[in-house]
Amino acid sequence: MSVEAGRVAAALVRRVRLPNDRRTPAAARALVRSVLEQAGLDTLVNEALLLTTELSTNAVVHAGTEVDIEVDADPAGLTVTVTDFAPGPVEQLAVGPRNEQSDIGEVAERGRGLLLVDHFASRWGTVHEGVGKGVWFRLESKETAGADAAAVTDGEAAPTVGELTTLLQIGPERHTDDTLADFATELLSRLARLTGATGGVVRLDRGDGGGRQLLARHGRAPRDDAETIRVPLSVQRPYSGELELDASPAGYAQPLATIVAERFSLHLENDRLRRTDLRRQTWLTFLAEASELLAQSLDVNLTMALIPQLVVPRLGQWCAVHTTDAWGRLQLAAATHADEAAVPMLHATLAETGPDSVLARLEEASRLGQQVMFGTPPEGFAVPLVARGQRLGTLAVGRHQRHRHDGEEVAVLEDVARRAALAIDNARIHDERRQVARTLQASLLPPALPHVPGVGFAAEYVPTGSEVGGDFYDVVPAGDDSWLVVVGDVSGKGVQAATVTGLVRDVIRILVDDGKPMTEILCRVNRTLVQRGGGRYCTLAMASVTRAGQDLRVCLHLAGHDRSVLVRADGKTSFVGEGGTALGLLETITSPDVTVMLQPGDSLIFYTDGVTERRRGRELFGTARLSDAATPLAGYPADVMAARLRSTTINFSVEEPRDDIAILVLRNDA
């Protein structure tokens, strides 16, 4: 006996356990092909690979467990067993064509592949071994030698292996609308040739409001009065559809149509999952962009006006934002419509009252804190705006022009409502903090400067952000025809800086009322800050102003502060003052004084570093620009000079000021 003959005479058995993976059928085919080549049973390769593919695919799709493949070859033929480990018994499987004597109906879902097993296998059956259960088939070499010849069942020619293999192995090149339609048309064409049908159609509804559409057609469309085969497509919601074949359900036409419908359904499921993934990615991008836009605004009105612009038209035909007032009543804050001409009508509809009005439904949504639908006109639904447990109002959205909102869009709108509510609440909190800061800042500044004949006082103050700053100014009467002018800057911001600012301002006023000289006032303020300033320091420009005939005598002390700008009546400018020690840093300070005589028309400008350190990129406003801006203001009243300097400083840059700006102008109006 030769080596080859000895190999065939003995049984050849191979066993392998494969994972639950889409590549498992390919691995199973490779194992069967290898055994067939070793056993010299090449004539069985087509049928064996086809049936192995069907059984292994069924096990992967329906069991969801690992799969055992056993291949047993001998000289007489091949036996393949596919076992899975899913709980429960093997289903009662119905196979074969339906005829007048049998009432099989539709082939069971897992029995569609067994239709091929029953057709091509010499024998087949089920196995139960411990926790495993499966299906086996047997191919006899002498019985399948003529498997490609036509078999006859009830007088009808059965499809050959080659025809069924071609039918089951074709697929779309890529998942797009066009290739999916072409794939369905090709399937219908091959199915019609196998069954002798005159035509067929595939109808599909993607659940997008367009209804059931004709996806593919071959030959003439089936007639309503004719006997046809209708097979629903096995797809998940919102997809639905059917395959209709203009053929008699007798013979193999019905089960073949069922197999084709299932095969196409798998590709439709891939299409649905692909679209769902793309749609979710799109919504995630939209939500991220919406969050970024909402987070950029800390203005309440601007935030509420932005929300409808984000929703329309992507998520609805129209959108309205209502907020609750102090009594819990809803007030329209912003609304928009995809059709601008319809905006006035939308406002009128939202303003209507009554038990069946849109406003009544919105109040119900706000009261219950849950989504509420309202009917036509206009149809839509309302989502409450809730942030940090507080009900802020409602977000109302009108339905799309051609279809209602699907579940995914509703979920996105609810997410938008949550983000919008949080943005509104953040803007409100920021606005409240800003109001508190403005109120506290105003309490640190004099309500009005003295009105003195022949002497002009004017000031401008620009706060920044929602925190109170440390800049301040004051003019304190110090006797007959005498005043004390103070401009200061306490380090830092916030409540602590405001506390120190108030402390410095009050100490100065008390000491001025006691008639203390400026040097003693500065020393007392320094000692107070060292003891009670909490590590904060203060720079001061302090000047005593007294009349000297038509002139004003100004004795100027600078405690670590910038020099003041002297503007003569003829337009000449200069910086005056000598630097001293900032207050609150050292136990002892130095504070040289400089006397300046202001003649009629002369002015002296005090300011904080928010003016000179105003930024435009890396460029500072600086003292040179301040001097240049002050030169053409000679001869103007003090209030005009202060206002012009404020405007020039602010307009230097488009950025918000990073530091508070304080400007005080003293002018001899004699």
TrEMBL record:
UniProt keywords, alphabetically: Hydrolase
Record carries keyword Hydrolase: yes
Domain (PPM-type phosphatase): residue spans on this chain: 452-668
An annotated Gene Ontology molecular function: phosphatase activity
UniProt-listed CDD domains: HATPase_RsbW-like (cd16936)
InterPro entries (UniProt xref): Bact_Sigma-Reg, GAF-like_dom_sf, HATPase_C_sf, HATPase_dom, PPM-type-like_dom_sf, PPM-type_phosphatase-like_dom
Protein name: PPM-type phosphatase domain-containing protein
